[in-house]
Amino acid sequence: MGEGRWVEVRVVDGDGHDQRRFVKAVRQLRKELADEGLPTQDVVGSPGGLQQSDGSIAIAVALVGAGGAVPTLVAVLRDWIQRRKNPGKIVVTLGEDSIEMERPTFDERAELLEAFLKRHQEN
User: What range does the domain containing 77 cover?
Assistant: First the structure.
């Protein structure tokens, strides 16, 4: 995924009906991440935001800066998923470790996500 510390954010389709709307929503997430200064890039095997056979799209997000990237990433993901009617889930992966977040549980698990990202950022 390139140099530096990158996290994979995989968005799994919630309704499975309108692929065009799903792709557009993930592109909007990528734009929002970039607007907050978080560099993104395609994940190998998911070029240009193409949907995978499991109904998901993955993007890589760089964790850059002096610790400010983690809370920013969590805030952007929270805001984005809360605005979706059928968001499915977000799977955040660093190395071999992953955490799943869904809209009904996102607020409850946001602290876990932040701790997960910080733990891996320090390694």
Answer: 6-122
